[in-house]
Amino acid sequence: MSETRFWLIRHAIVAENARNLIYGTMDVELCPHSLAAQRPMYAALARRLPRPAVWLASPLSRTQRTAAAIFRAGYPEQPVAIEPGLIELAFGEWQGLAHAALPARLTLPAHAFWPLGGEERPPGGESMADGIIRLGTVMERLAAAHAGQDVVAVSHGGAIRAAVAHSLGIRADAALHLSIENISLTRLDRTPRGWRVACVNELPGV
Question: Which domain holds residue 20?
Answer without folding.
Answer: 4-202
